[in-house]
């Protein structure tokens, strides 16, 4: 019975991990498709294309943080599914460490995004653009 419960838990972790990655991929492909549509329209479209590229890069920061946080737990779950045993102690240690580092990864991602946003705001202010977009 315990093996069945472990297999169900491991399977649900792996399924949810790849479902979320699939959702991230769908968003990325949608941004990419919109970028291609806007490329042929003109100068206003060129500004939108740059905006879409910026959004895609920001999204990738969160995807990398998500994968960095959860990869050891997924490796541990897959290991258990295929071998029927507990993963090696190094994999388990990595799972505990990286899963608990999620707050740090998200902090780094938000800091990077905030700095980029601040840099864009500073450039628009020095260029004479006084509109505030919050």
What's the helix and strand layout?
Elements: H1 2-39, H2 43-83, H3 89-100, H4 102-126
Helix pairs in contact: 1-2, 2-3, 2-4
Task: Give a brief description.
By secondary structure, the chain is an all-alpha fold. It has helices spanning 2-39, 43-83, 89-100, 102-126.
Notes on the protein architecture:
It contains 4 helices and no strands. The chain has helices at residues 2-39, 43-83, 89-100, 102-126. The longest helix is centred in the middle third of the chain and has 41 residues, at 43-83. The radius of gyration is 21 Å and the shape is elongated.
- Helical content (DSSP H or I, runs of 4+): over 70%
Structural class: mainly alpha
Contiguous uncertain segments of 5+ residues: none
Query: Total strand count, please?
Result: 0
- Strand content range: under 5%
What do the pLDDT scores average to? 78
Could you state the order of secondary-structure elements as H and E?
HHHH
Please report the number of helical segments: 4
Number of domains: 1
**What is the global morphology?**
elongated
| Rg calc | 21 Å
Terminus-to-terminus distance: 54 Å
How can the largest sheet be summarized? none
List keywords for this structure.
mainly alpha, 4 helices, 87% helix, elongated
């Amino acid at each position: 019975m315990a093996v069945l419960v472990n297999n169900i838990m491991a399977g649900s972790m792996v399924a949810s991990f790849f479902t979320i990655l699939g959702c991230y991929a769908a968003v990325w492909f949608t941004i990419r498709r919109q970028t291609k549509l806007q490329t042929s329209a003109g100068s206003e479209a060129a500004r939108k294309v740059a905006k879409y590229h910026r959004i895609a890069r920001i999204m990738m920061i969160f995807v990398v943080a998500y994968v960095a946080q959860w990869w050891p737990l997924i490796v541990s779950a897959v290991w258990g599914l295929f071998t029927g045993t507990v993963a090696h102690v190094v994999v388990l240690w990595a799972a505990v460490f990286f899963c608990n580092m999620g707050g740090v990864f998200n902090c780094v991602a938000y800091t990077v995004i905030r700095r980029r946003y601040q840099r864009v705001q500073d450039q628009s202010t020095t260029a004479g653009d006084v509109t505030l977009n919050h």
